[in-house]
Structures are given as structure tokens and as C-alpha cells.
Amino acid sequence: MAQPNLKDRRLEDYGYILEYRTRWSDNDQYAHMNNAIYYHLFDSIVNTYLIEKCGLVPKTSPLIGLVVSSYCQVPSDVLVPFLHRNSSRQFFAPVSFPDVLELGLRVNKLGSSSVSYEVGVFLKGESKPAAVGGYTHVFVGSESRKSTPMAQATREGLSKLLRPSGSNTAKL
């Protein structure tokens, strides 16, 4: 299957939407959103989804293992830790304070111990993305650090966002 042109993505291509209001501190010296902020956005929508739909309870669950992507830890009774394996993003339009954004989340690939996320960043009300990016997490055992199947609740929640990377439609 041919790789999709990410610039052609639409908000409806994503199964989960989260609004984000940019902050003054998101801007860099060139008056557009700093590159590192995009990864904060990606991490925020993924973890919000894991909390809302997959049973992640970071405030009350015991934290174990390692720091997992750049910013979060995972409770032992819900998920096993995961490693941030790779990441990417493409920019199509500038974003800056005081823009309001709509973030879209989809899963392009769901393995037994890994998940590939894609996040679309849209200016609120716009049909074309300002940026599209994502990353792959590999779930690992806290002691062994070896690839470990993800918890059933996690798999069920993530499967609702599964859209093969070459398609725009979901199997919901």
C-alpha cells in the first residue's frame, strides 16, 4: 500500500480529538510554536487518551520501572512500561500564540507489544493540518526490559483508534 500524503489528512481521519489553547511560552524567538512543543502536544494527547480510554491512572497507581517516552511513567497494574522507539513530524503551516488547536490521534499500527501513534495538529476550524507527526512505543517488562505484550485494556482502547497508515478510514 502506498504511503499517504500526510498533508491530505483531515480532522475526521482521527478517532480522538483534543483541543489545545496555545500559550505565550509556546512561541520561539521567531513568533511561531517552538519545535519541542509539538512533542509535548503529541505526548499530551496520547496520555490523555490512555487515561480516558485505556485505564491509565497516574495519580493513584503505583509507578514502576522507567521513565517512558519523554514525560510520563506507567503504573504496574494497568500497563507495562514502554520505550519511545522513534518519532517524526512534518510541518505544513505555522502555528503560534494565541491560536487554538485541535489535535487528532490515530493508531496506524498495533502489534502485540508496540503501538504506532499519529497525531494531526490543526488550527481550530481549518480542514488541513498544520503538522502531522507521531511515534512508536514498545511495551517492555519493568525488570527484564524485554518486549512484553500490552495489557488487554490497553489493547482494546488503542484498537478503537486503529487506522492502517495508508488509509483515512477506521474500522470502528
From TrEMBL:
Molecular functions per Gene Ontology: fatty acyl-CoA hydrolase activity
InterPro entries: 4-hydroxybenzoyl-CoA_TE, HotDog_dom_sf, Thioestr_dom
Domain Thioesterase: start-end pairs: 31-127
Keyword terms, alphabetized: Hydrolase
Protein's UniProt keywords contain Translocase: no
Disordered: annotated span: 146-172
Classification via PANTHER family: 4-HYDROXYBENZOYL-COA THIOESTERASE FAMILY MEMBER, NOVEL THIOESTERASE SUPERFAMILY DOMAIN AND SAPOSIN A-TYPE DOMAIN CONTAINING PROTEIN (0610012H03RIK)
Similarity comment: Belongs to the 4-hydroxybenzoyl-CoA thioesterase family.
Annotated protein name in UniProt: Thioesterase domain-containing protein
